[in-house]
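Anyone have tokens for Piriformospora indica-insensitive protein 2? Sequence:
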Amino acid sequence: STFSLLFFFFSLSLSQDQPLLDPTEQKALYQLLNSLNPTIPWPTLFPDDLCFSAPHGVVCDYYSSSSTTQQKAHIVELNFGYVSDETPNPPCSPNATFNPLLFTSFNYLRKLFFYKCFNNTQNHKPLHNLSLPPSLQELVFIENPSFVSPLEPFLNNLTSLKRLVLIGNGFHGELPPQIASFNNLEELTVSRNNLSGEVPASLGMLKKLKILDLSQNEFKGCVPEQVGNLTSLLKLDLSFNGFVCKIPESLKHLKNLEFMDLSFNLFGNFGVPLFIGEIPKLKEVYLSGNSLSGKIPEIWENLGGVVKIGFSEMGLVGKIPSSMGVYLKNLSYLGLDNNKLDGPVPEEFGLLEFVDEINLENNNLSGRITFSKKVGEKLKLAGNIGLCLGNNNSCSENGGRLGQINPCKITDVPDAVVFNGVSLLLFDPLTLVLVSLLFFFTGF
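Reply: yep, here.
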């Protein structure tokens, strides 16, 4: 039809006006795709200009030359490794090989993403002799254990970085002091590598940093006080390392912090930091696995937004503050298990409407459990031999962890029967008779 013919010529004219991808980049991209997955005929599937018709995850942008007004297309994003149907990046084969063209052919690259592409740990891919383009703003390597390199030389000249995400790779060595020159960095996530050494104090100069995740490495020494200078920080995760000393008091300056995980380090006998109560936007806090000891402090009044607390295996002693049930209105998880806490389970925990789990296992808690079935099903109380269930307790039918608690005997009930303000359980039988006669003749 006439309409179809007009549409064809219109589309053709658009494609002719479209700036073409630099031929060097087009050729390099075909080679790169083939090295990642040689089972797919890339030139056959994508025979045209790769900026006009490209695999998902390949993104171009257009630049004008300084000597002419004519625009040129260049690749600015490369994303490899199938993630999901929503992000179907070019899949990497089990025999994927690393192509150095990646480091030499894409001078306009702003984002590089590899997800589960290099899993053969017997075939290491040393990267420290290669230089990424200085234009790079996002570098994301997730679950590529055969990427093995010292971290410091790998980061040379990447001062434009906004996101550095290296999760589950083989990077080793120390966090380099030059990281402080990455003035635009907003996320530094290097979890589950083999990094070690002390964290440089210069890290505190990254004023735009919102996410700092050094978890599951082999860092040691003290956490620098300068981390408290990162006032834009939303997430701080230093868990599963070898940090010692005292948790820095300077962290109280992180007024925007929502997530803090310092669990499973070697922080010593300094107690739960009181400054936690001064971080108003905190939603999750985890200190489990540190020998902090001491009592749970009364710091909860201004922390109504807290959703999750992990204080397991910390050597905590004393009673559980009832104020936790009063002020932590949005709490969904509370882990206080495997400590040395004593006394009763606060009745105020019954006020927590959104709680999914309260784990109090393996402490020295005692007394009578009086929670409703709805709340009782959320409690984990095994390993507290002093606890018992009241006879009228509606949660005693629960077959879960609470079901392991024995019913209370009469002698277990802490509330004595009171007669005219005097507890009859305080007296022996003879005294009871005398008291009864006294009441009869005096008219009390």
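The two ends are 110 Å apart (CA to CA).
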